[in-house]
Amino acid sequence: MKNYYIGIAIGCCLLDLPAAAQKLGVTDLRTEYLKNPMGIEAAAPRLSWKMNSAQRNVMQSAYQIRVGTDSAGLLTGQSSVWDSGTQKSDASVFLRYAGKQLKSDTRYYWQVKIKDNQGNESGWSAISSWHTGLLNPDDWSAQWITSSLADTVEGPSPIFRKVFATAGKVKSAILYISAHGLYEAQINGKRVSQDHLAPGWTSYHKRLLYQSYEVTNLLKDGQNAIGFTLGDGWYRGYLAFDGKRSFYGKHLSGLVQLVVEYTDGTKKVINSDGSWKYSTGPVRFSDLYNGEIYDAKFEKPGWATVNYKDTGWKNAQIIAPGKEVLESSISPLASKHEQFSVVKVIKTPKGETVLDFGQNVVGWVSFKLSGKAGSFIKLEHGEVLDKAGNFYDANLRRAKQHVKYIFKGNGVESYEPHFTYQGFRYVKLTGNTAHIDPSAFKAIAVYSDMDPTGTFTSSNPLLNQLQHNIQWGQKGNFMDVPTDCPQRDERLGWTGDAQVFFRTAAFNMDVAGFFTKWMKDVASDQLANGSIPYVVPNVLTQNDAGSTGWGDVATIIPWNMYVAYGDKQVLATQYPSMKAWVDFMTNKSKNDLWNTGSHFGDWLFYRPEDDNDGRSAITDKYLIAQAFYAHSTQLLVNTAKVLGKKDEEEKYTELLDRIKKAFVKEYITPSGRLVSGSQTAYVLALNFDMLPDNLRQQAVDFLVKNIESYGNHLTTGFLGTPYLCHVLTRFGRTDVAYKLLLQETYPSWLYPVKMGATTIWERWDGIKPDGSFQTTGMNSFNHYAYGAIGDWMYRVMAGLDTDESEPGYKKIIIAPQPGGKITQAAAKLETLYGLTVSDWKIEGGQFKLKVVIPPNTTALIRLPGAADAAVTESGTALKDVKGIVKVSNQGNDLEFNAGSGTYQFEYAVK
């Protein structure tokens, strides 16, 4: 959810500081990744900051943190809670609070000041804060309330209200709120937050999130009113693809606790209870898959204000709490982002009126229209037009994605949906469409509120569009959980899709909070035998679990989160789940060979239409299983080492050796061929080090020959594709990787781009070259899995990578690898330490590389083909540049270490 600044008008003025101090500053203070967060439940929250310095080779040498419950007292050094004292350390991320025990429902203010390795000392930073949630179950005094409305598919959304009075000068007001279903809350007629689809989707049977909001500025002296509306959402609406409904429960209910603190220190608590009133409003039907029916004649203007007359409203009913654990939400909820105008009004061959918004977007359409009372306008949403140019929605399966608005007839009426969302580029209009003004419609993108962190650009416009499509596939499918698709009757947290895309996702956006939340549900829904469900939250059956490449989400994402953010806590939290998954595979294995169970395999790999020569891309599913078995075991070994679990590190290292020996015995012929000759088979075997050293080059040759036999096309599916180009680069065939990346005909990454895609497709040929569609049963045009190539574009093409020995970009690798007639590529990434950049171009026979390394980090820089070149940095010979150390030739490349700062390298291209 959004983290609102609390408007502390107190800062630290640097004007009176010595000149040296002005060379060093502290910015971007965060608590558990967040700016001024609400609802922190950690007993010892972790604090982070960034250094601000224009000098080179700057490292932090010491820090001091102070924490208090009074911001003014903190400024004068009268910290009443904790003062760390001066600590000699370069640590600036994840410093644990170590003061007095934190209290519930309390705001804590904090500052930091630092010293660097060049004798500079900062002033105290601006004040930041965190607010604790309700830390103990006994802190909750509110009761769950519901209505007596019947459980019907066409049921209207209930609305609840309560009038209360304040009696004194209000210092602060904090709202704690949750629901079985979705909620929208108001105080005195104003929306409480910009979050949507709250409280989000978790494994509701196990845990339910509540949100905390600062609402002080919404209260008035004297009488006030609070209200909320409920929608079915994931709790009671349709889920999955078999027409399931009410998976978690049949009755919508809400939980509200408003804590008002007065300036004299006293508190008043307004709770949801039997004194609340309820009725129904204009939302007559809402469903995530099927849309919304809104009848404006049922509007109750001012229903969440004091003066509204609620005669005829009924008293809310109190129900017992569920068995789920109520936890604070500090993960990003969905919110509104970009808006798109209509780019074209289409009159289709069938005579339909269709709006084209120019971008496959996920969210909804808002409009301002007028109509006679009782007339309606209906919006049907689709991703593509068919070959003839008609509106197409057959690929939605059972999901209707319809929004119907019924006019009340009072001039211009404004509307946007409440408890639904759609995946679409095109909207078909029916009903009151006689005089359609396209400017009256806006498509609003809605997705989890994650800060953008990375950008990639190149000299190739098709690659830039591919990057655009990758980012929009991520935006559309990061809707509180990482869904496979956002439009048809599915929209589930498929574990395989999420794990293959994670590294790319972590470049594009700050996904730390998003995945920390979701991985808790992966562990929550993990079966007793350690198996991982296909989807999380698991709304399928207990039998829908245990597939290789999908279950490995339990190990792959925690490890890659550690690599991307340097966060050991996520490893510690997820370690039992990681271990249980590896133990599950071990228990299913015989003689260290996992060749049992049902698996998706290399899902949606390329299938030749007429494979008469027997070279089909099919990969043995158990070969894949054995490779991922080894990979997860390796990640468990890595994690045990980081966490200091030496005995388990040794235990699983021995297991890993046996797994690889079993692979060689079962899947490699005496001549060194794999029993499956597919690209995916060789990619996985090479990427996960399943082959003895003496057989690896031969395997690379087999892989390249296979690629060439398909005319330099890939044939990989969901599991092979993420590693394909990385393997080629690792073994010296980046030239082939570029051929694959830049291939424009099917199957390839750029084929959908050439076909006009604005997001990543589920299938390589969702639209065939002749304009016809793949099967309607499974043909999403917004599916991020194949967008995993973005990771290679960032890390190899642009050359911005991590060093796992100092993860989270504490040590950065800058190692661009040009190719494919690309003349420029750039990656920029906002890390936990600050902005880092790798931006290269080939111009006038010169290779030019701009590098930005943030303070408190170092970098290993590798210049391609520069081993014997006369390299300069900002016009100075490299050997004369202060801070450039450990210069050495690595083959044809030149390698060296550098500290923080901005660098401009240049040398002649051979």
What does this structure look like?
- It comes from Pedobacter cryoconitis.
- It catalyses: Hydrolysis of terminal non-reducing alpha-L-rhamnose residues in alpha-L-rhamnosides.
- GO terms for molecular function: alpha-L-rhamnosidase activity.
- Residues 169-330 form the Bacterial alpha-L-rhamnosidase N-terminal domain.
- Keywords: Hydrolase.
- A hairpin with an 8-residue loop joins strand 37 and strand 38.
- It is built from 15 helices and 47 strands.
- Strands 13, 19, 20, 24, 25, 26, 27, 30, 31, 32 and 33 form an eleven-stranded mixed beta sheet that branches. Strands 8, 10, 14, 16, 17, 22 and 23 form a seven-stranded mixed beta sheet that branches.
- The model is unreliable at 1-21 (pLDDT under 50).
- It is globular and about 85 Å long.
- It has 910 residues and is of the alpha+beta class.
- It has five domains: 21-131, Sandwich (Immunoglobulin-like); 140-328, Galactose-binding domain-like (Jelly Rolls), CATH 2.60.120.260; 334-448, Jelly Rolls (Sandwich); 454-795, Glycosyltransferase, CATH 1.50.10; 799-908, Sandwich (Maltose phosphorylase, domain 3), CATH 2.60.420.10.
- Helices cover 21% and strands 29% of the residues.
